[in-house]
Amino acid sequence: MSSSFNTILIMGGTSGIGEGIAKRYHKQGKKVIITGRRENLLAEITSANPGMESYTMDNSILADIPGHVDTLFTKYPDLDAVLINSGAMSASSIKDLSTSSDEQVIKELTVNMTAPFILARHMIPRFLSRGTEATFMITSSGLAFVPSPLAPVYNATKSGVHAYLVTLRQQLKGTKVNIIEIVPPLVSTDLTVAFQDQLKGAKALTLQQFLDEIFGTLDSNEAKDLKEVAAGTAVDRSNAWRSSIGELLKNSGMGG
Questions:
Q1: What CATH number did the domain enclosing 246 receive?
Q2: What is the pTM of this model?
Q3: Fewest Cβ atoms nearer than 10 Å: which of 39, 84, 202, 233?
């Protein structure tokens, strides 16, 4: 898959999985552009990785997305791959109102699901209009397939991302736009460190272990042949879906 593109935009590339993937592709010689809200982190990462570029934006400000997309596709006309990696996660219990807030629910829905869907709406038609190969990716989670009681809203948003990407594949069948879902298990990053005490001994992959595993798949397969790219415990979860519901869709002629 890595041979299928030359220039990749990684949205949410200032920490964790997004930063790790950006650095990995940068080392492969790809043109990498990272986005994020914090200019200081963008400057720090691009300074440490000469040739990598950055663009400051906040995906949660939905009204600004069309303008940002216009700017990015104008500034980088050779852009042929996008990974949307930004995410928000909070632990809560429906039994205790104090464990969450309306604002937290709205934030998770916006960052994890609404913003990526709007970005797809504005980006994919641009790729289609070119008639050349392009790849569009979103990071979901193993929790999209087997939810945890720890983070109900997060589970639901990532399940929504999975269903959305399956549907995009159905709609884009026969085109040159590839749709890939990156499916992490529990990975030791800034996103998950706050929940370690509540995970009851669940073992997390290190970021390096996660990257090695997904790039083993990404680097050895054609983008058009990839659907869910998972690692660790998320492999069995995504495979179970692919061999059950996914098989039903395939047999129905819809695929995805």
A1: 3.40.50.720
A2: 0.94
A3: 39
